[in-house]
Amino acid sequence: MFSCCFKIARGTGVKKDKSGGHGGAWRHRIHSCLQRLWPFSRKEADLTQGSQDQGHTEKAKEDSAPKDQKEPCGESRISADVVEKLVNHLVPSLQAGDTFFVPAFLCTYRRFATTQQVLDLLFKRYPYFRPYCEEDEQAKNTLCSFLDTWIDKSPEEFCQTSDLSILKKLKTYLILNMPYSDLIVRVHMLLTDLQQEEASESEIEDDEDSDLWNHISEDPELEVC
């Protein structure tokens, strides 16, 4: 379904913008891919007369479905190659002033990728930035802005005490590539707060276990047992 999608050059965003007439063609194909996934693009077509009962039926089926079926899944009709091209277009779209692509991507990417996979693809696309290069500096600033927006829009994807690996990996990347950015300060503070919260929860559990043991040791009948 998405096999007809675009080819994006491996160069930087500024170089891609020099592709002339071909640029409009692949940008149109990128938008077509996301529009098929965009959750709001099909609402008007679905809300026709006589379809409300069907909507209630579908909602009831969804509510009764097992929870794991509602979870985002890496398997989809979009190939890994297309996912990579979508991720690679995030920074260039912002540099080109596109106001549709990034919001649509952030609302739909969980259907075909995980947060960790998207980060890995971004880090692969931008493994380093050349010093004293205006083009790379612009790409770095745009990527930093996108990551900051992503954390604002989806904090639950990053701020989980049960899994700090995403924040840790992001912090490592920022230390290497954006050591003086405001974003690294934000990520460091988030990570510190979550680690302290995790430690506090662990202490509470230890205190509860200790209180239970003290109660058992003070009860003569339980002590005999």
List key phrases describing it.
225 residues; 0% strand; single chain; 67% helix; disordered N terminus; mainly alpha
Q: What would you note in describing this structure?
A:
Helix content is 67%, strand content 0%. By secondary structure, it is an all-alpha fold. The longest helix has 37 residues, at 182-218. The chain is globular and about 80 Å long. The chain starts with 12 loop residues before the first helix and ends with a helix.
Brief description of this entry?
The protein has 225 residues and is mostly helical.
Q: Count the DSSP helices.
A: 13
- How can the largest sheet be summarized? none
Shape: globular
**Total strand segments:** 0
Structural class: mainly alpha
Rounded mean pLDDT score: 75
Radius of gyration: 24 Å
Helix content: 55-70%
The span between the termini is 68 Å
User: H/E series, N to C?
Assistant: HHHHHHHHHHHHH
Runs in which pLDDT lies below 50 for 5 or more consecutive residues are 1-21, 40-52, 64-71
Strand percentage lies at under 5%
List the helices and strands and how they pair.
Elements: H1 13-16, H2 21-37, H3 43-46, H4 52-64, H5 67-70, H6 80-88, H7 90-95, H8 101-108, H9 115-125, H10 134-153, H11 165-177, H12 182-218, H13 220-224
Helix pairs in contact: 2-8, 11-12
